[in-house]
Write a structure and sequence with these properties.
Blueprint (H helix, E strand, L loop, with lengths): L7 H33 L1 E3 H8 L3 H10 L6 E2 L5 E4 H9 L8
Antiparallel strand pairs: 1-3, 2-3
Helix pairs in contact: 2-3
Amino acid sequence: MSQIEPPESRLLQLTSLCGPEGARAIVEAVNRLISMFSEEQVLGTREVAERLGVSRKIVQRLAASGELPKPIRIIGNRLGWRKSDFEKWLAGRPPIARQ
């Protein structure tokens, strides 16, 4: 997936809201996210929960306790896991007992 170039009107809005450096930082951050999801394939909490057969709340607990591979912060408080790291972890681990 290629990087985005925001329409000129959006870029002007970003620049007026947060200055040229802020606008550039936002565009770079969006491009990093696009790159992460297209190249690295990041799994969100929902996808991890589905693969494990548990609820999202259980995934959050497992992440907090360190029982899952180290997550990456996507945006704000949202977590994700690199698909390659998760699959490697999953292949070498017994099934998780449902509580």
